[in-house]
């Protein structure tokens, strides 16, 4: 697995609160634009594997589209039990490119 940033979309491709699923180093990553910042988390819901990139965002949390489990986009914690969580990945904007790094997951 690479430890470098990978371009996943361009600034302006996502609207506020919108997510999408991208592939970074053979891994599915859900990326969102929230309050003007890009957030990236593991795309697979740990419950039954739904794509979190298709979920709705509210108050900094994404709702899984299948059964509504909520995950905080800031740290990947499951809102109903913060002892559990999913990976969160570093993002950055370089020029017009939005980039994600999965190798250095937080
Ligand atoms: S698959 Fe995500 S809550 Fe069930």
UniProtKB/TrEMBL annotation:
Gene3D superfamilies: Rieske [2Fe-2S] iron-sulphur domain. Keywords: 2Fe-2S, Iron, Iron-sulfur, Metal-binding, Oxidoreductase. This is Assimilatory nitrite reductase [NAD(P)H] small subunit. It is an enzyme of class 1 (oxidoreductase). It comes from the Bacteria. It comes from Botrimarina mediterranea. The keyword Metal-binding applies. The keyword Metal-binding applies. Pfam families: Rieske. Residues 6-100 form the Rieske domain.
């Amino acid at each position: 697995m690479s430890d470098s940033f990978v371009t996943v979309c361009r600034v302006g491709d996502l609207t506020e609160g919108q997510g999408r699923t991208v592939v970074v180093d053979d891994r599915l990553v859900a990326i969102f634009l929230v309050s003007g910042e890009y957030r990236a988390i593991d795309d697979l819901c740990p419950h039954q594997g739904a794509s979190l990139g298709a979920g709705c965002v509210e108050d900094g949390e994404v709702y899984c589209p299948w059964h509504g489990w909520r995950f905080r986009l800031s740290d990947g914690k499951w809102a109903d039990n913060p002892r559990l969580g999913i990976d969160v990945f570093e993002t950055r904007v370089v020029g017009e490119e939005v980039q994600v790094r999965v190798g250095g997951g937080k």
